[in-house]
Amino acid sequence: MGEPKHTPGPWRLEQNGPAYNLCSPDRARHFAILVGMIRNQDSEHKANAERIVACVNACEGINPDAVPDLLAVLEPLIAYIDNEGPPAKEWKAIADLCEQGHAVIAKVKEGPCPSP
Predict the structure, then answer these.
(1) Which residues on adjacent β-strands are paired with residue 21?
(2) Which of 12, 65, 70, 88 has the fewest CB atoms in 10 Å of its CB?
(3) CA–CA gap between residue 105 and residue 97 (Å, rounded)
(4) d(CA 65, CA 52)
(5) CA angle, 40 as apex, 35 and 41 as ends, to 5°?
(6) Element at 35 (helix H, strand E)
(7) How far are the Cα atoms of 13, 26, 30, 59, 92 from residue 70, in angstroms, in the given order?
(8) Residues 18, 19, 20, 22: what is their CA dihedral angle, to the nearest 10 degrees?
(9) Which tens digits make up the pLDDT trace of 50-102?
């Protein structure tokens, strides 16, 4: 998979008066400025800026296109184990789901998908 087109992480947040700058890991480059549009909403504005940075940093190295596949495999696996338990005769079904899970997890770990 090629290099991402977005700024690599971890992203950082710097307050600049009423605005928040999103910047590169070394803080040498500021690539976005968030400015609140509603007066007296400073704490909400700061929380929004912090959430953007936290989400980007948490997703570093994850291919977001693989997340629905990951859920499609893991949700029935978890439901099965929660509801039925793994009786010995069902190990084949569990092994098949685990094989799918390994493939999806590998896809997620391929890294970020190319930016649109």
Answers:
(1) 14, 33
(2) 88
(3) 12
(4) 19
(5) 55
(6) strand 30-35
(7) 30, 33, 34, 14, 20
(8) -170
(9) 888 888 888 888 887 888 888 888 888 777 776 776 566 667 777 788 778 77
pLDDT digit string, tens, across residues 3-39: 657 777 888 998 888 888 888 888 888 888 888 766 6
**Global pTM?**
0.57
Residue keyed to tokens 């929004």: 48
Short-list 2, 25, 11, 24, CA closest to 113: 2
Torsion of CA 21, 114, 9, 57, to 10 degrees: 90
Percent of the chain with pLDDT strictly greater than 70: 81
- C-alpha to C-alpha distance for 58 and 52, rounded to whole angstroms: 10
Tokens of 75: 């949700």
